[in-house]
Design a protein that fits this description.
This protein is mainly α. The protein has 2 domains: 2-102, RNA polymerase sigma factor, region 2, helix turn helix motif (Rna Polymerase Sigma Factor, Chain: A); 107-185, Winged helix-like DNA-binding domain superfamily/Winged helix DNA-binding domain (Arc Repressor Mutant, subunit A, Orthogonal Bundle), CATH 1.10.10. The chain is built from 9 helices and no strands. Helix 2 (32-49) crosses helix 3 (59-105), helix 6 (129-140) crosses helix 8 and helix 7 (145-152) crosses helix 8. The chain is elongated. The termini are far apart.
Protein backbone atom coordinates (compact mmCIF):
# COMPACT_ATOMS: atom_id res chain seq x y z
CA UNK A 1 0.00 0.00 0.00
CA UNK A 2 2.82 2.40 0.87
CA UNK A 3 4.63 1.86 -2.43
CA UNK A 4 1.41 2.66 -4.36
CA UNK A 5 1.02 5.84 -2.32
CA UNK A 6 4.67 6.70 -3.02
CA UNK A 7 4.21 6.10 -6.74
CA UNK A 8 1.05 8.18 -6.76
CA UNK A 9 2.76 11.01 -4.84
CA UNK A 10 5.74 10.81 -7.17
CA UNK A 11 3.51 10.94 -10.29
CA UNK A 12 1.62 13.97 -8.93
CA UNK A 13 4.90 15.73 -8.13
CA UNK A 14 6.31 14.80 -11.55
CA UNK A 15 3.22 16.16 -13.32
CA UNK A 16 3.26 19.34 -11.23
CA UNK A 17 6.97 20.17 -11.48
CA UNK A 18 8.34 18.64 -14.67
CA UNK A 19 7.31 21.54 -16.95
CA UNK A 20 8.43 24.35 -14.61
CA UNK A 21 11.75 22.60 -13.95
CA UNK A 22 12.19 22.07 -17.69
CA UNK A 23 11.56 25.79 -18.38
CA UNK A 24 14.03 26.61 -15.60
CA UNK A 25 16.74 24.43 -17.18
CA UNK A 26 16.07 25.64 -20.72
CA UNK A 27 16.27 29.21 -19.49
CA UNK A 28 19.89 28.60 -18.52
CA UNK A 29 21.30 25.99 -20.90
CA UNK A 30 19.34 27.02 -24.03
CA UNK A 31 19.30 23.38 -25.15
CA UNK A 32 15.93 21.62 -24.88
CA UNK A 33 17.33 18.09 -25.16
CA UNK A 34 19.96 18.69 -22.47
CA UNK A 35 17.35 20.35 -20.22
CA UNK A 36 14.97 17.39 -20.65
CA UNK A 37 17.79 15.01 -19.74
CA UNK A 38 18.70 17.03 -16.64
CA UNK A 39 15.11 17.16 -15.36
CA UNK A 40 14.49 13.47 -16.05
CA UNK A 41 17.79 12.52 -14.39
CA UNK A 42 16.93 14.68 -11.37
CA UNK A 43 13.53 13.01 -10.92
CA UNK A 44 15.18 9.60 -11.33
CA UNK A 45 17.84 10.47 -8.75
CA UNK A 46 15.15 11.57 -6.31
CA UNK A 47 13.19 8.34 -6.86
CA UNK A 48 16.31 6.23 -6.29
CA UNK A 49 17.33 8.12 -3.11
CA UNK A 50 13.92 8.95 -1.64
CA UNK A 51 14.09 6.25 1.05
CA UNK A 52 17.51 7.48 2.23
CA UNK A 53 16.62 11.19 2.46
CA UNK A 54 15.91 12.92 5.74
CA UNK A 55 12.19 13.08 6.58
CA UNK A 56 12.15 16.88 6.38
CA UNK A 57 13.61 16.91 2.84
CA UNK A 58 11.58 19.04 0.48
CA UNK A 59 11.32 16.82 -2.67
CA UNK A 60 10.79 19.62 -5.24
CA UNK A 61 13.69 21.60 -3.75
CA UNK A 62 15.85 18.46 -3.77
CA UNK A 63 15.03 17.80 -7.44
CA UNK A 64 15.50 21.44 -8.47
CA UNK A 65 18.90 21.48 -6.73
CA UNK A 66 19.98 18.53 -8.89
CA UNK A 67 18.69 20.30 -12.03
CA UNK A 68 20.50 23.49 -11.01
CA UNK A 69 23.80 21.63 -10.45
CA UNK A 70 23.50 19.83 -13.78
CA UNK A 71 22.92 23.18 -15.51
CA UNK A 72 25.94 24.67 -13.75
CA UNK A 73 28.14 21.74 -14.80
CA UNK A 74 26.84 21.99 -18.37
CA UNK A 75 27.56 25.73 -18.54
CA UNK A 76 31.03 25.27 -17.01
CA UNK A 77 31.74 22.61 -19.64
CA UNK A 78 30.55 24.95 -22.41
CA UNK A 79 32.71 27.73 -21.00
CA UNK A 80 35.79 25.48 -21.09
CA UNK A 81 34.99 24.36 -24.65
CA UNK A 82 34.62 27.99 -25.76
CA UNK A 83 37.91 28.96 -24.09
CA UNK A 84 39.75 26.05 -25.73
CA UNK A 85 38.16 26.88 -29.08
CA UNK A 86 39.19 30.53 -28.74
CA UNK A 87 42.74 29.52 -27.81
CA UNK A 88 42.93 27.16 -30.79
CA UNK A 89 41.64 29.89 -33.09
CA UNK A 90 44.13 32.37 -31.64
CA UNK A 91 46.97 29.88 -32.14
CA UNK A 92 45.87 29.19 -35.73
CA UNK A 93 45.83 32.92 -36.43
CA UNK A 94 49.31 33.28 -34.93
CA UNK A 95 50.61 30.42 -37.10
CA UNK A 96 49.04 32.03 -40.17
CA UNK A 97 50.67 35.40 -39.34
CA UNK A 98 54.05 33.69 -38.98
CA UNK A 99 53.59 31.97 -42.34
CA UNK A 100 52.61 35.24 -44.00
CA UNK A 101 55.54 37.16 -42.49
CA UNK A 102 57.94 34.34 -43.39
CA UNK A 103 56.69 34.33 -46.96
CA UNK A 104 56.87 38.12 -47.18
CA UNK A 105 60.45 38.05 -45.92
CA UNK A 106 61.40 35.19 -48.22
CA UNK A 107 63.79 36.24 -50.96
CA UNK A 108 64.33 33.44 -53.51
CA UNK A 109 67.61 35.01 -54.58
CA UNK A 110 68.97 34.54 -51.06
CA UNK A 111 67.62 31.00 -50.73
CA UNK A 112 69.43 29.94 -53.85
CA UNK A 113 72.47 32.11 -53.31
CA UNK A 114 75.94 30.67 -53.59
CA UNK A 115 76.68 31.67 -49.99
CA UNK A 116 73.76 29.66 -48.59
CA UNK A 117 74.58 26.69 -50.79
CA UNK A 118 78.15 26.76 -49.45
CA UNK A 119 77.00 26.92 -45.82
CA UNK A 120 74.63 23.98 -46.34
CA UNK A 121 77.29 22.02 -48.25
CA UNK A 122 79.94 22.60 -45.54
CA UNK A 123 77.50 21.74 -42.76
CA UNK A 124 76.47 18.50 -44.42
CA UNK A 125 80.12 17.59 -45.14
CA UNK A 126 80.85 17.80 -41.41
CA UNK A 127 78.07 15.37 -40.51
CA UNK A 128 78.40 11.57 -40.46
CA UNK A 129 77.79 9.94 -43.83
CA UNK A 130 74.74 8.03 -42.57
CA UNK A 131 73.14 11.25 -41.26
CA UNK A 132 73.67 13.00 -44.60
CA UNK A 133 72.29 10.01 -46.49
CA UNK A 134 69.13 9.93 -44.34
CA UNK A 135 68.76 13.72 -44.55
CA UNK A 136 68.95 13.52 -48.36
CA UNK A 137 66.35 10.75 -48.48
CA UNK A 138 64.05 12.92 -46.39
CA UNK A 139 64.58 16.39 -47.81
CA UNK A 140 65.78 15.85 -51.35
CA UNK A 141 63.84 12.71 -52.24
CA UNK A 142 60.82 13.46 -50.03
CA UNK A 143 60.66 10.01 -48.44
CA UNK A 144 58.76 9.49 -45.18
CA UNK A 145 60.51 8.27 -42.04
CA UNK A 146 58.86 4.89 -42.51
CA UNK A 147 60.07 4.62 -46.12
CA UNK A 148 63.61 5.60 -45.12
CA UNK A 149 63.56 3.07 -42.26
CA UNK A 150 62.54 0.30 -44.67
CA UNK A 151 65.15 1.38 -47.22
CA UNK A 152 68.02 1.61 -44.72
CA UNK A 153 66.89 -1.28 -42.48
CA UNK A 154 66.96 1.09 -39.49
CA UNK A 155 64.29 1.93 -36.91
CA UNK A 156 62.12 4.98 -37.38
CA UNK A 157 63.56 6.34 -34.11
CA UNK A 158 67.04 6.18 -35.64
CA UNK A 159 65.79 7.95 -38.74
CA UNK A 160 64.24 10.69 -36.58
CA UNK A 161 67.51 11.01 -34.67
CA UNK A 162 69.60 11.48 -37.83
CA UNK A 163 67.19 13.97 -39.38
CA UNK A 164 66.99 15.96 -36.14
CA UNK A 165 70.77 15.97 -35.92
CA UNK A 166 71.11 17.30 -39.48
CA UNK A 167 68.43 19.95 -38.97
CA UNK A 168 69.97 21.06 -35.68
CA UNK A 169 73.36 21.53 -37.38
CA UNK A 170 71.79 23.36 -40.31
CA UNK A 171 69.84 25.59 -37.95
CA UNK A 172 73.03 26.48 -36.09
CA UNK A 173 74.92 27.11 -39.31
CA UNK A 174 72.11 29.16 -40.82
CA UNK A 175 71.13 31.06 -37.68
CA UNK A 176 71.67 34.33 -39.54
CA UNK A 177 69.33 33.09 -42.26
CA UNK A 178 66.48 31.70 -40.14
CA UNK A 179 63.87 32.15 -42.89
CA UNK A 180 65.95 29.94 -45.14
CA UNK A 181 66.02 27.29 -42.43
CA UNK A 182 62.21 27.08 -42.71
CA UNK A 183 62.64 26.36 -46.40
CA UNK A 184 64.93 23.40 -45.64
CA UNK A 185 62.75 22.26 -42.75
CA UNK A 186 59.64 21.95 -44.88
Amino acid sequence: MTSHANIGDFNRMFNAYYSPFLRFAIGYVKDKQAAEDFVSEAFTAYWEKKDKLLPDTNPPAFILTIVKNKCINYLHHQQIEQRVSAEMKEHAEWVKKIRISTLEACDPDIIFSREIEEIVKRTLENLPVKTVEIYNYSRKMGLSHKEIAELTKMSQKSIEFHISKALRQLRDSLKDYIIIFFFFLF
